[in-house]
Amino acid sequence: MTLNRNHVAVLGATGSIGTATADVLQHLAKTDPDGNWRMWAASGHQNLPELTKIAAQMDSPPQRLILSSPEAAKSFDGTDALASKYDVGVGTNALVDVAMSPEVDTVVAAIVGRAGLESTLAAIDAGKRVGLANKETMVVAGPLVRQMMAKSGSELLPVDSEHSAIFQCLGNWASTRADTRADGTSGDSDAPANHAPKPRKLILTASGGPFREWSSDRIADASPADALAHPTWEMGRKISIDSATMMNKALEIIEARWLFDLPADAIEVFVHPQSIIHSMVEFDDGSVIAQMSPPDMRLPIQFALTYPRRLPSQSPPLCRKQSYDLTLEPADHGRFPALSLGFEVAKAGGTAGAVLNAANERAVGLFLDGKIRFTDIAAGCRDVLENHTHEENPSLSRMLELDRWARVEVDRRFSQ
Ligand SMILES: NC(=O)C1=CN([C@@H]2O[C@H](COP(=O)(O)OP(=O)(O)OC[C@H]3O[C@@H](n4cnc5c(N)ncnc54)[C@H](OP(=O)(O)O)[C@@H]3O)[C@@H](O)[C@H]2O)C=CC1
Ligand SMILES: CC(=O)[C@@H](O)[C@H](O)COP(=O)(O)O
Ligand SMILES: [Mn+2]
């Protein structure tokens, strides 16, 4: 009997998504023994203690560990106790190598920011299944990702909760049709494709972040601690600030535009403070299908790993003994100007995504360092975006050049 092999490389293993992925892999290894689940490789940037802790916690420890920060790598001389236990790679090239390794079947792309781009593209190019948390890859290089996928046959499974929800709302219809045939066949092989309804709208839900009920004046004085206090999710620092500005939703609009290949005007946002409805799809007859579960990233991570199988997960279901209020509110583009940037950039395509992403990353860093005000983040992004000359079909190297340019522009704007 040939057993499946599920060797998973978790890039960004020391972060919020990375540690949740480790948890899911431990769970799958115990509950799906025929799946042969294993964290084969794990990366961290500089947090070596956390990386070794995660590796040591796995029942079947990873073979390869990667420490990607060049500075942190300098302190690793290859002779210590770590090297006797693991094959240790250092530097950013090691991320690309592992993403392409024949030993790896699935890559969970959980590095934060543009730093995750090369390894995610390498995994796609090598035809791996990719569990995509690193939304910035789609924001910077969505069209390139689509081209690479078509060539390599890589499967890109969304981990971002909204995109996983949309994927589930779209996919269930076709598979239910095929599954309900009395004779167990799906009939004409092209039946689901021919009859599957096209989505009319993708409706992303947004928690509204910690400032959902704050006035514009109060938001202008928000501190990093205020902005990091997300009401429903525990996440890394960068995405938490993005949720507070609602730039996270802007990035997700762009991510959805390229993941699902729909125009920007087919995407809408509803504020849903409870984070239970993770997103929705509206079809031509007006019917709306939603995916719901209490907020817990282990669910979309596991679904990306096991798709098309749905297996028991650690994520608790909705509790039938309690009441839930599920509310939907229109998004306020006035207090959260980042939202409009998301729609504009999703529509513009070309170089706009790379510029917005880089400007935002830099501005978030400056805000966290106490150098700029909260409202400077979206304002700075708009300035930099408007100062750049749009190009329609940029190469990857051109996008990376503009990424560097946008960061310098943000610094220049705020040093005046
Ligand atoms: N957290 C969540 O619930 C969700 C996150 N996402 C997306 O997932 C991605 C990860 O988010 P999250 O887990 O919250 O982030 P974290 O900040 O918690 O973790 C980031 C990870 O990336 C590594 N890293 C940081 N900088 C670099 C670099 N320059 N090169 C290589 N690796 C680096 C970190 O290593 P080290 O620890 O050593 O610094 C860490 O492993 C983001 O793109 C985010 O938008 C999407 C949906 C939900
Ligand atoms: C868990 C997840 O997918 C995050 O992207 C989350 O959605 C952030 O919440 P906001 O809706 O506040 O941006
Ligand atoms: Mn999300």
UniProtKB/TrEMBL annotation:
Per the database record, which ranges form the DXP reductoisomerase C-terminal domain? 292-407
**Which key words are in the record?**
Isomerase, Isoprene biosynthesis, Magnesium, Manganese, Metal-binding, NADP, Oxidoreductase
**Top-level taxon of origin:** Bacteria
Q: Which residues bind Mn(2+)?
A: 160, 162, 252
1-deoxy-D-xylulose 5-phosphate reductoisomerase C-terminal domain span: 156-260
Q: Where does NADPH bind?
A: 14-17, 47, 134, 136, 236
The organism encoding this protein is Rubripirellula obstinata
Cofactor(s) needed? Mg(2+); Mn(2+)
Q: Which protein are we looking at? A: 1-deoxy-D-xylulose 5-phosphate reductoisomerase
- What's its EC? 1.1.1.267
Please state which protein family the record places this protein in. Belongs to the DXR family.
* Alphabetical GO biological process terms: isopentenyl diphosphate biosynthetic process, methylerythritol 4-phosphate pathway involved in terpenoid biosynthetic process
Per its record, the protein catalyses:
2-C-methyl-D-erythritol 4-phosphate + NADP(+) = 1-deoxy-D-xylulose 5-phosphate + NADPH + H(+)
**InterPro entries, alphabetized:** DXP_reductoisomerase, DXP_reductoisomerase_C, DXP_reductoisomerase_N, DXPR_C, DXPR_C_sf, NAD(P)-bd_dom_sf
What are the start and end residues of every segment in region (Disordered)? 179-199
Q: Which residues bind 1-deoxy-D-xylulose 5-phosphate?
A: 135, 161-162, 207, 230, 243, 248-249, 252
Q: Which PANTHER family does the entry mention?
A: 1-DEOXY-D-XYLULOSE 5-PHOSPHATE REDUCTOISOMERASE (PTHR30525), 1-DEOXY-D-XYLULOSE 5-PHOSPHATE REDUCTOISOMERASE, CHLOROPLASTIC (PTHR30525:SF0)
State which pathway it belongs to: Isoprenoid biosynthesis; isopentenyl diphosphate biosynthesis via DXP pathway; isopentenyl diphosphate from 1-deoxy-D-xylulose 5-phosphate: step 1/6
Q: What does this protein do?
A: Catalyzes the NADPH-dependent rearrangement and reduction of 1-deoxy-D-xylulose-5-phosphate (DXP) to 2-C-methyl-D-erythritol 4-phosphate (MEP).
Which residue range or ranges hold the 1-deoxy-D-xylulose 5-phosphate reductoisomerase N-terminal domain? Answer: 8-142
Question: Which GO molecular function annotation, any one, does this entry have?
Answer: 1-deoxy-D-xylulose-5-phosphate reductoisomerase activity
